[in-house]
Amino acid sequence: MTATAPHQEERHASRPSARPAVAVAHAAKTFRLPHQRYSTLKERALHPFASRTFDELHALEDVSFEVAQGEFFGIVGRNGSGKSTLLKCLAGIYAIDAGSVEVEGRLSPFIELGVGFNPELTARDNVIINAIMLGLSRRQARARFDEIIAFAELEEFVDLKLKNYSSGMGVRLGFAVAVQVDAEVLLVDEVLAVGDASFQQKCFEQFDRMKAEGRTILYVTHDMASVERFCDRGLVLERGRVVDLGPPEQITRTYSALNFGQAGDADASGSGGPARVLSAWCESPEGERLVASRHGERLTACFEIEFTEPVDDPVFTIVFRNEVRHTILVCSTDARVATGRFEAGRRATVRFGFENNLAASRYTLTPSVGAPGRGHDCYARADDLAALIVQGAGSGGVIELPYTVEVEGR
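The structure assignment produced for this chain is given below.
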């Protein structure tokens, strides 16, 4: 698939010997936002001389990158940075205004909930129709139907109209269809933002399988832990422009600096503090980085700090929040613990180890470093910098502590 803007100048850059799976060169996309919108002919007739002024939103500006065949490529950026617009341009949903977009091979997009689904049809009909639209024959679609429904865990709801599905059920069905198509290139936008912890883990396992198969995957997310686990490279978008392109550790640092400012104080939005958060993750006792952990296992929460000014005895803290933004766990060195002196340019890696008694859910990690004795004086904080999925049966509480039971009859 190739999309080229009209009157585009020819590219002079030489291509590598192996054609990339995705090549984007100087792509631009602008939306016009009218100041006054008329929805009926009557309104237009009543205001024939009304001003037709509009604002321009430059969603993408001079975006260039290439993705090699078989590469897992991350696309990150703040809300409104142009990530989803970029994927829609790659999928052919939007036409670009300038530059070129080239995709080698069959493409399977999973861009947002409900795209391509008819809410008045059942899951059975939607699966067949969407699989055919994505390139399968009718026979292939029917042959894979049971596997698609089983992956989505919707066997009991296969004849229910989609308008009666929850958002989580819809995303499971959409992802299950997308990954069953024999596509060389897969576009995935925020698949882990909706769905329970068990389905998110199933998505991770599917990513591992697709990587092993050599699929090319472009993955949009805010979850830096999954970027570091899966992505070979990635880029950071800000206001429609590429501000960084490189290995996952590099782009997570750039994303953190853009999204959180790495400043102190309550708003964590300025700049110029004595420290900055570089990254955060969880790891097993063997030192393996994790995106998922089973309840009851030993777990270590880690983050890395870089100091830009000399600091004495900083307080290191990491906070776990659940999906409804409740603070569930706080680990801290405490102001009474002397952590030492850190000169400008020095880095510190902080590790908090504990038995994982968290209930099954998805948690985000917020690391911070502050001044001793004054908890409100925060040098640097990065909200929700990493994520962890906890697996296991739960009782409905926010933690699952070990306990004993005695029942005494009278």
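Interim note for the steering committee: The chain has nine helices and 22 strands. Residues 197-212 form the longest helix (16 residues).
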